[in-house]
Design a protein that fits this description.
The complex is a heterodimer.
Chain A lengths: L1 H15 L2 H29 L4 H4 L7 H24 L4 H6 L1 H6 L5 H34 L5 H28 L3 H19 L2 H4 L5 H9 L8 H24 L3
Chain B lengths: L3 E10 L2 E11 L4 E5 L6 H8 L7 E6 L2 E2 L7 H8 E4 L11 H11 L4 H14 L15 H13 L5 E5 L7 H12 L6 E6 L2 H7 L2 E6 L2 E7 H7 L4 E6 L4 H12 L4 E7 L2 E6 L2 H14 L4 E6 L4 H9 L7
Parallel strand pairs in B: 3-8, 3-9, 6-7, 7-8
Antiparallel strand pairs in B: 1-2, 1-4, 4-5, 9-10, 11-13, 11-14, 12-13
The chains are: A mainly alpha, B alpha/beta.
Chain lengths: ~250, ~325
Protein backbone atom coordinates (compact mmCIF):
# COMPACT_ATOMS: atom_id res chain seq x y z
CA UNK A 1 0.00 0.00 0.00
CA UNK A 2 2.80 2.43 0.88
CA UNK A 3 4.57 1.84 -2.44
CA UNK A 4 1.34 2.19 -4.39
CA UNK A 5 0.54 5.42 -2.53
CA UNK A 6 3.98 6.77 -3.37
CA UNK A 7 3.64 5.69 -7.02
CA UNK A 8 0.19 7.27 -7.23
CA UNK A 9 1.60 10.51 -5.84
CA UNK A 10 4.40 10.49 -8.44
CA UNK A 11 2.00 9.84 -11.32
CA UNK A 12 -0.32 12.55 -10.03
CA UNK A 13 2.62 14.96 -9.89
CA UNK A 14 3.60 14.16 -13.52
CA UNK A 15 0.02 14.84 -14.53
CA UNK A 16 -0.60 18.00 -12.48
CA UNK A 17 2.71 19.60 -13.39
CA UNK A 18 2.05 18.84 -17.09
CA UNK A 19 5.28 16.85 -17.42
CA UNK A 20 3.39 13.82 -18.68
CA UNK A 21 1.45 15.93 -21.17
CA UNK A 22 4.62 17.55 -22.53
CA UNK A 23 6.33 14.18 -22.90
CA UNK A 24 3.33 12.56 -24.59
CA UNK A 25 2.78 15.49 -26.95
CA UNK A 26 6.44 15.83 -27.96
CA UNK A 27 6.94 12.11 -28.62
CA UNK A 28 3.55 11.70 -30.35
CA UNK A 29 4.25 14.72 -32.57
CA UNK A 30 7.60 13.28 -33.58
CA UNK A 31 5.91 9.93 -34.15
CA UNK A 32 3.41 11.56 -36.45
CA UNK A 33 5.69 13.92 -38.36
CA UNK A 34 8.54 11.45 -38.98
CA UNK A 35 6.82 9.62 -41.88
CA UNK A 36 5.47 12.95 -43.13
CA UNK A 37 8.98 14.44 -43.15
CA UNK A 38 10.34 11.40 -44.97
CA UNK A 39 7.61 11.67 -47.59
CA UNK A 40 7.66 15.40 -48.13
CA UNK A 41 11.36 16.30 -47.88
CA UNK A 42 11.76 16.22 -51.68
CA UNK A 43 8.65 18.42 -52.04
CA UNK A 44 9.95 20.79 -49.36
CA UNK A 45 13.29 21.04 -51.16
CA UNK A 46 11.51 21.85 -54.40
CA UNK A 47 9.59 24.63 -52.68
CA UNK A 48 12.77 26.26 -51.38
CA UNK A 49 14.23 28.78 -53.89
CA UNK A 50 17.27 27.11 -55.45
CA UNK A 51 16.39 23.78 -53.88
CA UNK A 52 15.00 22.29 -57.09
CA UNK A 53 18.48 21.14 -58.17
CA UNK A 54 18.88 19.13 -54.94
CA UNK A 55 15.39 17.66 -55.05
CA UNK A 56 16.40 15.53 -57.98
CA UNK A 57 19.28 14.09 -55.96
CA UNK A 58 17.01 12.83 -53.18
CA UNK A 59 15.84 9.30 -53.96
CA UNK A 60 12.12 8.54 -53.85
CA UNK A 61 11.22 8.14 -50.17
CA UNK A 62 10.32 4.67 -48.90
CA UNK A 63 8.99 3.12 -45.70
CA UNK A 64 12.63 2.57 -44.60
CA UNK A 65 13.24 6.34 -44.73
CA UNK A 66 10.14 6.91 -42.61
CA UNK A 67 11.37 4.39 -40.04
CA UNK A 68 14.89 5.91 -39.98
CA UNK A 69 13.39 9.35 -39.45
CA UNK A 70 11.20 7.96 -36.64
CA UNK A 71 14.15 6.27 -34.90
CA UNK A 72 16.32 9.39 -35.19
CA UNK A 73 13.66 11.77 -33.84
CA UNK A 74 12.24 9.59 -31.07
CA UNK A 75 15.69 8.37 -30.04
CA UNK A 76 17.20 11.86 -29.70
CA UNK A 77 14.24 13.62 -28.13
CA UNK A 78 13.31 10.65 -25.98
CA UNK A 79 16.75 10.59 -24.38
CA UNK A 80 16.77 14.38 -23.96
CA UNK A 81 13.37 14.24 -22.25
CA UNK A 82 14.54 11.33 -20.08
CA UNK A 83 17.31 13.59 -18.76
CA UNK A 84 15.10 16.64 -18.34
CA UNK A 85 12.23 14.87 -16.59
CA UNK A 86 14.43 12.91 -14.19
CA UNK A 87 17.00 15.54 -13.22
CA UNK A 88 14.92 17.18 -10.47
CA UNK A 89 13.07 14.08 -9.29
CA UNK A 90 15.01 13.64 -6.05
CA UNK A 91 17.18 16.75 -5.75
CA UNK A 92 14.14 19.04 -6.02
CA UNK A 93 12.43 17.29 -3.15
CA UNK A 94 15.62 17.53 -1.08
CA UNK A 95 16.05 21.23 -1.87
CA UNK A 96 12.44 22.17 -1.19
CA UNK A 97 12.13 20.04 1.95
CA UNK A 98 9.31 17.77 0.80
CA UNK A 99 11.66 14.78 1.02
CA UNK A 100 12.10 15.44 4.75
CA UNK A 101 8.34 15.73 5.17
CA UNK A 102 7.64 12.24 3.79
CA UNK A 103 10.82 10.46 4.88
CA UNK A 104 9.95 10.90 8.58
CA UNK A 105 6.83 8.88 7.79
CA UNK A 106 7.04 5.08 7.45
CA UNK A 107 8.02 5.42 3.77
CA UNK A 108 11.16 3.34 3.11
CA UNK A 109 13.76 5.36 1.25
CA UNK A 110 14.01 2.62 -1.39
CA UNK A 111 10.29 3.02 -2.12
CA UNK A 112 10.89 6.76 -2.53
CA UNK A 113 13.40 6.09 -5.33
CA UNK A 114 11.63 3.12 -6.95
CA UNK A 115 8.26 4.86 -7.10
CA UNK A 116 9.91 7.75 -8.93
CA UNK A 117 11.57 5.38 -11.37
CA UNK A 118 8.43 3.33 -11.95
CA UNK A 119 6.34 6.44 -12.55
CA UNK A 120 8.81 7.51 -15.25
CA UNK A 121 8.75 3.98 -16.68
CA UNK A 122 4.97 4.27 -16.99
CA UNK A 123 4.79 7.74 -18.51
CA UNK A 124 7.55 6.93 -21.01
CA UNK A 125 5.71 3.72 -21.91
CA UNK A 126 2.41 5.49 -22.53
CA UNK A 127 4.07 8.33 -24.45
CA UNK A 128 6.03 5.93 -26.60
CA UNK A 129 2.91 3.85 -27.15
CA UNK A 130 1.13 6.94 -28.50
CA UNK A 131 4.14 7.91 -30.59
CA UNK A 132 4.47 4.35 -31.90
CA UNK A 133 0.78 4.18 -32.80
CA UNK A 134 0.93 7.54 -34.55
CA UNK A 135 4.15 6.66 -36.38
CA UNK A 136 2.82 3.26 -37.46
CA UNK A 137 -0.48 4.70 -38.69
CA UNK A 138 1.11 7.46 -40.79
CA UNK A 139 3.83 5.17 -42.14
CA UNK A 140 1.16 2.66 -43.18
CA UNK A 141 -0.98 5.45 -44.65
CA UNK A 142 1.77 7.16 -46.63
CA UNK A 143 3.98 4.19 -47.49
CA UNK A 144 3.10 0.65 -46.47
CA UNK A 145 2.52 -0.89 -43.04
CA UNK A 146 5.74 -2.05 -41.34
CA UNK A 147 5.82 -5.48 -39.72
CA UNK A 148 3.80 -4.92 -36.52
CA UNK A 149 5.77 -7.22 -34.22
CA UNK A 150 9.07 -5.70 -35.42
CA UNK A 151 7.63 -2.21 -34.89
CA UNK A 152 6.60 -3.12 -31.33
CA UNK A 153 10.08 -4.60 -30.75
CA UNK A 154 11.74 -1.42 -32.01
CA UNK A 155 9.66 0.75 -29.66
CA UNK A 156 10.24 -1.49 -26.67
CA UNK A 157 14.00 -1.38 -27.23
CA UNK A 158 13.96 2.43 -27.58
CA UNK A 159 11.91 2.58 -24.37
CA UNK A 160 14.57 0.55 -22.58
CA UNK A 161 17.31 2.91 -23.82
CA UNK A 162 15.37 5.87 -22.42
CA UNK A 163 14.98 4.07 -19.09
CA UNK A 164 18.77 3.64 -18.89
CA UNK A 165 19.13 7.43 -19.06
CA UNK A 166 16.25 7.89 -16.61
CA UNK A 167 18.06 5.64 -14.10
CA UNK A 168 21.43 7.37 -14.62
CA UNK A 169 19.86 10.81 -14.14
CA UNK A 170 17.90 9.64 -11.08
CA UNK A 171 21.17 8.47 -9.54
CA UNK A 172 22.79 11.87 -10.07
CA UNK A 173 19.64 13.57 -8.84
CA UNK A 174 20.03 11.59 -5.60
CA UNK A 175 23.77 12.17 -5.24
CA UNK A 176 23.90 15.86 -6.13
CA UNK A 177 22.72 18.93 -4.27
CA UNK A 178 21.37 20.84 -7.29
CA UNK A 179 19.45 20.12 -10.46
CA UNK A 180 22.18 21.74 -12.55
CA UNK A 181 24.80 19.37 -11.17
CA UNK A 182 22.49 16.39 -11.71
CA UNK A 183 21.79 17.17 -15.36
CA UNK A 184 25.41 18.18 -15.96
CA UNK A 185 26.62 14.78 -14.82
CA UNK A 186 23.85 12.98 -16.72
CA UNK A 187 24.94 14.77 -19.93
CA UNK A 188 28.53 13.90 -19.14
CA UNK A 189 27.50 10.23 -18.86
CA UNK A 190 25.75 10.51 -22.21
CA UNK A 191 28.93 11.88 -23.77
CA UNK A 192 31.12 9.27 -22.08
CA UNK A 193 28.89 6.45 -23.37
CA UNK A 194 29.03 8.00 -26.86
CA UNK A 195 32.82 8.25 -26.66
CA UNK A 196 33.13 4.64 -25.50
CA UNK A 197 30.74 3.66 -28.30
CA UNK A 198 33.24 4.97 -30.86
CA UNK A 199 35.23 1.77 -30.28
CA UNK A 200 33.35 -1.00 -32.13
CA UNK A 201 34.30 -3.67 -29.60
CA UNK A 202 32.62 -1.68 -26.81
CA UNK A 203 29.78 -0.28 -28.90
CA UNK A 204 28.05 -3.65 -29.08
CA UNK A 205 27.76 -3.63 -25.27
CA UNK A 206 26.26 -0.17 -24.90
CA UNK A 207 22.57 0.76 -24.54
CA UNK A 208 22.47 2.67 -27.85
CA UNK A 209 23.15 -0.63 -29.63
CA UNK A 210 19.58 -1.55 -28.72
CA UNK A 211 18.34 1.12 -31.14
CA UNK A 212 20.34 -0.49 -33.94
CA UNK A 213 18.89 -3.85 -32.93
CA UNK A 214 15.39 -2.33 -33.06
CA UNK A 215 16.05 -0.83 -36.48
CA UNK A 216 17.37 -4.14 -37.78
CA UNK A 217 14.14 -5.88 -36.72
CA UNK A 218 12.45 -4.03 -39.57
CA UNK A 219 15.11 -5.04 -42.07
CA UNK A 220 15.32 -8.41 -43.84
CA UNK A 221 18.32 -9.39 -41.70
CA UNK A 222 17.77 -8.62 -38.00
CA UNK A 223 20.93 -8.44 -35.86
CA UNK A 224 20.32 -9.01 -32.17
CA UNK A 225 22.29 -7.26 -29.41
CA UNK A 226 21.68 -9.32 -26.29
CA UNK A 227 24.88 -8.18 -24.53
CA UNK A 228 23.68 -4.57 -24.84
CA UNK A 229 20.33 -5.59 -23.38
CA UNK A 230 21.95 -7.20 -20.33
CA UNK A 231 24.32 -4.26 -19.88
CA UNK A 232 21.38 -1.84 -20.06
CA UNK A 233 19.43 -3.78 -17.45
CA UNK A 234 22.55 -3.95 -15.28
CA UNK A 235 23.08 -0.17 -15.57
CA UNK A 236 19.47 0.43 -14.51
CA UNK A 237 19.77 -1.93 -11.55
CA UNK A 238 23.13 -0.54 -10.40
CA UNK A 239 21.99 3.07 -10.68
CA UNK A 240 18.79 2.46 -8.70
CA UNK A 241 20.53 0.34 -6.08
CA UNK A 242 23.27 2.97 -5.63
CA UNK A 243 20.65 5.72 -5.42
CA UNK A 244 18.85 3.82 -2.63
CA UNK A 245 22.10 3.29 -0.73
CA UNK A 246 23.07 6.95 -1.10
CA UNK A 247 19.65 8.19 0.01
CA UNK A 248 19.78 5.94 3.06
CA UNK A 249 22.99 7.65 4.16
CA UNK A 250 21.85 11.17 3.45
CA UNK A 251 20.66 13.70 6.02
CA UNK A 252 17.83 16.17 5.58
CA UNK B 1 9.62 6.05 31.96
CA UNK B 2 10.71 8.85 29.62
CA UNK B 3 9.14 9.28 26.21
CA UNK B 4 12.28 10.87 24.85
CA UNK B 5 15.66 9.97 26.27
CA UNK B 6 18.92 11.43 25.03
CA UNK B 7 22.32 10.41 26.39
CA UNK B 8 25.48 12.32 25.63
CA UNK B 9 24.41 13.07 22.06
CA UNK B 10 27.00 14.64 19.78
CA UNK B 11 26.80 15.97 16.28
CA UNK B 12 29.81 17.40 14.52
CA UNK B 13 29.75 19.22 11.17
CA UNK B 14 33.37 19.66 10.18
CA UNK B 15 34.83 21.69 13.02
CA UNK B 16 31.46 22.78 14.39
CA UNK B 17 30.04 20.89 17.36
CA UNK B 18 26.33 21.38 16.83
CA UNK B 19 25.57 19.04 19.74
CA UNK B 20 28.13 18.60 22.44
CA UNK B 21 27.10 15.90 24.90
CA UNK B 22 23.40 16.64 25.04
CA UNK B 23 21.53 14.71 27.74
CA UNK B 24 17.80 15.07 28.20
CA UNK B 25 14.66 13.27 29.36
CA UNK B 26 11.12 14.20 28.46
CA UNK B 27 8.29 12.69 30.47
CA UNK B 28 5.15 11.29 28.81
CA UNK B 29 2.33 13.78 28.31
CA UNK B 30 4.53 16.85 28.74
CA UNK B 31 4.39 19.88 26.51
CA UNK B 32 8.12 20.37 26.47
CA UNK B 33 9.53 23.73 25.41
CA UNK B 34 13.00 23.25 23.95
CA UNK B 35 14.48 26.70 24.29
CA UNK B 36 17.70 28.11 23.03
CA UNK B 37 19.24 30.89 21.01
CA UNK B 38 19.67 30.53 17.25
CA UNK B 39 22.32 27.93 16.45
CA UNK B 40 22.10 26.31 19.89
CA UNK B 41 21.36 22.87 18.39
CA UNK B 42 17.55 22.69 18.66
CA UNK B 43 16.81 21.75 15.05
CA UNK B 44 19.76 19.34 14.90
CA UNK B 45 18.42 17.53 17.97
CA UNK B 46 14.99 17.32 16.41
CA UNK B 47 16.34 16.06 13.09
CA UNK B 48 18.28 13.32 14.86
CA UNK B 49 15.25 12.30 16.93
CA UNK B 50 13.05 12.09 13.83
CA UNK B 51 15.64 10.09 11.86
CA UNK B 52 16.47 12.81 9.36
CA UNK B 53 20.05 13.16 10.57
CA UNK B 54 22.57 10.83 12.18
CA UNK B 55 24.31 11.47 15.49
CA UNK B 56 28.12 11.48 15.52
CA UNK B 57 28.11 9.88 18.98
CA UNK B 58 25.77 9.22 21.88
CA UNK B 59 22.39 7.54 21.95
CA UNK B 60 18.75 8.56 21.89
CA UNK B 61 15.43 6.79 22.29
CA UNK B 62 11.96 7.78 21.19
CA UNK B 63 9.41 5.70 23.05
CA UNK B 64 11.01 2.28 23.43
CA UNK B 65 13.03 2.51 20.25
CA UNK B 66 16.56 3.68 19.71
CA UNK B 67 16.98 6.25 16.96
CA UNK B 68 19.52 5.85 14.20
CA UNK B 69 18.99 2.14 13.70
CA UNK B 70 17.99 2.20 10.03
CA UNK B 71 18.67 -1.48 9.43
CA UNK B 72 16.20 -2.73 11.99
CA UNK B 73 12.50 -2.05 12.39
CA UNK B 74 13.29 0.78 14.79
CA UNK B 75 13.00 3.58 12.23
CA UNK B 76 9.62 2.33 10.99
CA UNK B 77 8.29 1.98 14.52
CA UNK B 78 9.46 5.44 15.52
CA UNK B 79 7.86 6.83 12.36
CA UNK B 80 4.54 5.34 13.49
CA UNK B 81 4.92 6.91 16.95
CA UNK B 82 5.76 10.44 15.95
CA UNK B 83 4.45 13.45 14.09
CA UNK B 84 6.83 16.11 12.83
CA UNK B 85 6.32 19.70 11.79
CA UNK B 86 9.51 21.21 10.31
CA UNK B 87 10.33 24.87 10.80
CA UNK B 88 9.09 25.82 7.34
CA UNK B 89 6.86 22.97 6.26
CA UNK B 90 7.44 22.17 2.60
CA UNK B 91 4.26 20.79 1.09
CA UNK B 92 3.50 19.71 -2.48
CA UNK B 93 2.08 22.86 -4.10
CA UNK B 94 0.19 20.91 -6.77
CA UNK B 95 -1.78 18.91 -4.20
CA UNK B 96 -4.91 20.04 -2.40
CA UNK B 97 -4.92 19.96 1.39
CA UNK B 98 -7.27 16.95 1.50
CA UNK B 99 -5.11 15.09 -1.03
CA UNK B 100 -2.01 15.74 1.09
CA UNK B 101 -3.64 14.45 4.27
CA UNK B 102 -4.97 11.42 2.40
CA UNK B 103 -1.51 10.71 0.98
CA UNK B 104 0.06 10.91 4.43
CA UNK B 105 -2.70 8.61 5.72
CA UNK B 106 -1.74 6.11 2.98
CA UNK B 107 1.88 6.22 4.14
CA UNK B 108 0.65 5.20 7.58
CA UNK B 109 -1.47 2.47 5.95
CA UNK B 110 -4.69 3.77 7.46
CA UNK B 111 -7.80 2.07 6.08
CA UNK B 112 -9.74 4.14 3.51
CA UNK B 113 -12.68 5.03 5.76
CA UNK B 114 -10.39 5.99 8.65
CA UNK B 115 -8.27 8.08 6.27
CA UNK B 116 -11.24 10.03 4.99
CA UNK B 117 -12.58 10.56 8.48
CA UNK B 118 -9.19 11.65 9.79
CA UNK B 119 -8.74 14.06 6.87
CA UNK B 120 -12.07 15.73 7.65
CA UNK B 121 -11.28 15.87 11.40
CA UNK B 122 -7.91 17.50 10.83
CA UNK B 123 -9.21 19.96 8.26
CA UNK B 124 -11.83 20.98 10.81
CA UNK B 125 -9.28 21.19 13.64
CA UNK B 126 -6.99 23.43 11.61
CA UNK B 127 -9.80 25.50 10.11
CA UNK B 128 -9.02 24.48 6.55
CA UNK B 129 -12.35 22.82 5.66
CA UNK B 130 -13.29 25.66 3.33
CA UNK B 131 -10.11 25.30 1.28
CA UNK B 132 -9.84 21.51 1.23
CA UNK B 133 -10.09 21.42 -2.57
CA UNK B 134 -7.76 24.36 -3.18
CA UNK B 135 -4.19 23.71 -4.27
CA UNK B 136 -1.57 24.26 -1.56
CA UNK B 137 0.47 26.46 -3.91
CA UNK B 138 -2.06 29.25 -3.33
CA UNK B 139 -2.01 29.00 0.46
CA UNK B 140 -0.76 31.76 2.76
CA UNK B 141 2.08 31.04 5.16
CA UNK B 142 -0.32 30.67 8.07
CA UNK B 143 -2.48 28.21 6.13
CA UNK B 144 0.58 26.18 5.19
CA UNK B 145 1.66 26.11 8.83
CA UNK B 146 -1.78 24.90 9.90
CA UNK B 147 -1.75 22.24 7.19
CA UNK B 148 1.78 21.31 8.28
CA UNK B 149 0.45 20.73 11.79
CA UNK B 150 -2.47 18.72 10.40
CA UNK B 151 -0.18 16.42 8.42
CA UNK B 152 1.90 15.85 11.58
CA UNK B 153 -1.24 14.67 13.39
CA UNK B 154 -2.60 12.25 10.76
CA UNK B 155 -1.36 9.12 12.58
CA UNK B 156 -2.54 10.33 16.01
CA UNK B 157 1.09 10.49 17.16
CA UNK B 158 2.13 9.71 20.70
CA UNK B 159 4.97 12.20 20.36
CA UNK B 160 4.75 15.38 18.35
CA UNK B 161 7.90 17.22 17.27
CA UNK B 162 7.35 20.87 16.41
CA UNK B 163 10.33 22.84 15.14
CA UNK B 164 9.75 26.56 15.68
CA UNK B 165 6.04 26.12 14.93
CA UNK B 166 5.07 29.79 15.16
CA UNK B 167 8.23 31.80 14.55
CA UNK B 168 7.22 32.84 11.03
CA UNK B 169 3.62 33.74 11.82
CA UNK B 170 1.81 36.99 12.53
CA UNK B 171 0.26 37.45 16.02
CA UNK B 172 -3.12 36.02 14.98
CA UNK B 173 -1.61 32.99 13.27
CA UNK B 174 0.67 32.47 16.24
CA UNK B 175 -2.21 32.54 18.69
CA UNK B 176 -4.18 30.05 16.61
CA UNK B 177 -1.33 27.56 16.37
CA UNK B 178 -0.48 27.89 20.06
CA UNK B 179 -4.11 27.26 20.96
CA UNK B 180 -4.02 24.12 18.80
CA UNK B 181 -0.86 22.97 20.55
CA UNK B 182 -2.45 23.67 23.95
CA UNK B 183 -5.45 21.60 22.94
CA UNK B 184 -3.15 18.59 22.54
CA UNK B 185 -2.35 18.60 26.25
CA UNK B 186 -3.01 15.17 27.67
CA UNK B 187 -3.39 13.64 24.22
CA UNK B 188 0.27 13.34 23.31
CA UNK B 189 3.76 14.42 24.31
CA UNK B 190 4.77 17.63 22.54
CA UNK B 191 8.44 18.45 21.99
CA UNK B 192 8.48 22.03 20.76
CA UNK B 193 11.60 23.95 19.87
CA UNK B 194 11.48 27.70 19.85
CA UNK B 195 13.43 30.81 20.68
CA UNK B 196 10.27 32.75 21.49
CA UNK B 197 10.04 32.68 25.27
CA UNK B 198 6.53 34.08 25.51
CA UNK B 199 5.21 31.12 23.50
CA UNK B 200 6.82 28.62 25.84
CA UNK B 201 5.47 30.49 28.84
CA UNK B 202 2.02 30.31 27.26
CA UNK B 203 1.77 26.61 26.40
CA UNK B 204 4.60 24.54 27.86
CA UNK B 205 4.63 22.84 31.23
CA UNK B 206 8.24 21.68 31.09
CA UNK B 207 11.20 23.64 29.81
CA UNK B 208 14.67 22.68 28.66
CA UNK B 209 17.24 25.31 27.82
CA UNK B 210 19.97 24.36 25.37
CA UNK B 211 23.03 26.42 24.55
CA UNK B 212 26.10 25.56 22.49
CA UNK B 213 24.85 22.01 22.00
CA UNK B 214 24.28 21.01 25.60
CA UNK B 215 21.50 21.34 28.14
CA UNK B 216 21.78 24.21 30.56
CA UNK B 217 18.71 23.31 32.58
CA UNK B 218 15.60 21.13 32.42
CA UNK B 219 12.70 21.58 34.80
CA UNK B 220 8.98 22.10 35.19
CA UNK B 221 8.23 25.64 34.08
CA UNK B 222 6.78 26.72 37.44
CA UNK B 223 9.62 25.11 39.34
CA UNK B 224 12.13 26.84 37.10
CA UNK B 225 10.50 30.22 37.64
CA UNK B 226 10.43 29.58 41.38
CA UNK B 227 14.05 28.44 41.36
CA UNK B 228 15.14 31.65 39.72
CA UNK B 229 12.83 33.95 41.64
CA UNK B 230 14.71 37.06 42.67
CA UNK B 231 13.89 38.24 46.23
CA UNK B 232 12.56 41.60 45.15
CA UNK B 233 9.55 43.57 46.31
CA UNK B 234 8.29 46.62 44.48
CA UNK B 235 6.43 49.40 46.24
CA UNK B 236 4.63 52.27 44.58
CA UNK B 237 3.32 55.30 46.44
CA UNK B 238 0.75 57.96 45.64
CA UNK B 239 1.93 60.98 43.67
CA UNK B 240 2.78 64.08 45.68
CA UNK B 241 4.60 62.05 48.35
CA UNK B 242 7.87 61.60 46.46
CA UNK B 243 9.98 63.33 49.10
CA UNK B 244 8.46 61.48 52.07
CA UNK B 245 8.66 58.21 50.16
CA UNK B 246 12.32 58.76 49.36
CA UNK B 247 13.09 59.57 53.03
CA UNK B 248 11.26 56.45 54.19
CA UNK B 249 13.21 54.32 51.73
CA UNK B 250 16.51 55.65 53.13
CA UNK B 251 15.43 54.64 56.64
CA UNK B 252 14.31 51.28 55.28
CA UNK B 253 17.74 50.61 53.87
CA UNK B 254 19.27 50.67 57.35
CA UNK B 255 17.01 47.77 58.42
CA UNK B 256 18.46 44.31 58.75
CA UNK B 257 17.25 41.85 56.15
CA UNK B 258 17.42 44.35 53.30
CA UNK B 259 20.19 44.29 50.75
CA UNK B 260 19.43 47.32 48.61
CA UNK B 261 16.70 49.82 47.97
CA UNK B 262 16.56 51.72 44.68
CA UNK B 263 14.03 54.44 44.12
CA UNK B 264 12.90 55.66 40.75
CA UNK B 265 10.23 58.33 41.08
CA UNK B 266 7.29 56.79 42.86
CA UNK B 267 8.56 53.20 42.64
CA UNK B 268 11.03 51.58 45.04
CA UNK B 269 12.68 48.24 44.28
CA UNK B 270 13.65 46.50 47.51
CA UNK B 271 16.01 43.53 47.41
CA UNK B 272 15.60 41.46 50.57
CA UNK B 273 17.48 38.54 52.13
CA UNK B 274 14.47 36.34 52.76
CA UNK B 275 11.39 36.95 50.68
CA UNK B 276 8.96 34.93 52.84
CA UNK B 277 9.67 36.85 56.08
CA UNK B 278 10.04 40.17 54.25
CA UNK B 279 6.50 39.84 52.90
CA UNK B 280 4.99 40.37 56.37
CA UNK B 281 7.35 42.82 58.08
CA UNK B 282 7.88 44.99 55.02
CA UNK B 283 4.16 45.29 54.42
CA UNK B 284 3.69 46.16 58.13
CA UNK B 285 6.36 48.89 57.94
CA UNK B 286 4.80 50.30 54.78
CA UNK B 287 1.42 50.45 56.47
CA UNK B 288 2.91 52.17 59.53
CA UNK B 289 4.79 54.74 57.44
CA UNK B 290 1.68 56.79 56.87
CA UNK B 291 2.38 56.92 53.14
CA UNK B 292 -0.25 56.18 50.56
CA UNK B 293 1.04 52.89 49.17
CA UNK B 294 -0.68 52.02 45.89
CA UNK B 295 1.15 48.79 45.14
CA UNK B 296 3.07 46.20 47.13
CA UNK B 297 4.23 43.44 44.80
CA UNK B 298 6.64 40.51 44.95
CA UNK B 299 8.41 40.56 41.60
CA UNK B 300 7.92 37.30 39.71
CA UNK B 301 10.53 36.56 37.08
CA UNK B 302 9.44 35.81 33.54
CA UNK B 303 10.91 32.96 31.55
CA UNK B 304 12.82 35.62 29.67
CA UNK B 305 14.51 36.73 32.92
CA UNK B 306 15.48 33.12 33.64
CA UNK B 307 16.65 32.53 30.07
CA UNK B 308 18.78 35.67 30.02
CA UNK B 309 20.20 34.78 33.40
CA UNK B 310 21.19 31.31 32.22
CA UNK B 311 22.16 31.98 28.66
CA UNK B 312 22.94 35.65 28.66
CA UNK B 313 21.75 38.31 26.25
CA UNK B 314 24.57 37.49 23.86
CA UNK B 315 23.82 33.77 23.90
CA UNK B 316 26.77 32.96 26.19
CA UNK B 317 26.29 30.73 29.15
CA UNK B 318 26.40 32.72 32.39
Amino acid sequence: MIFLASLRKELMEHWRTSRFMVLAIVLTLFGLISPLLAKYIPEILKAVPGGEQFAGLVPTPTMTDAISQYIKNIGQFGILLALLLSMGAVVNEKEKGTAALVLVKPLPRGFFIFSKFLSLVIIFFISLLLAGMGGYYYTALIFSPPDLSAWIGLNLLMWLVMLVYVAITLLFSTLMKSQAAAIGLAFASLLILAAIGAAPSFAKLLPNQLINWGASLLSPTPVSAWPALWVSLAIIFICLFTACLALNRQEF
Amino acid sequence: MSTIRIEDLQKVYGKVHALDGLTLNVEPGAIFGFLGPNGAGKSTTMRILTGLAHATAGRAWVGDFEVGDRKGESHKRIAHLIGYLPEEPALYPWMTSSELLDYIGCLFELPTTDRHQRTQELLALTGLEGVSKRRIGGFSRGMRQRLGLAQALVNRPQILFLDEPVSALDPIGRREILEMISSLRGKCTVFMSTHILADVERVCDTVGIINHGHMVVTAQKDELLKRYTIPVVELECESGQEKEFSEWCKILQSNGGIQTVTVEGLVARVVVDDLESARSWLLKQAAQSGLGILRFQVVTPTLEDVFLRLVGSDGRLQ
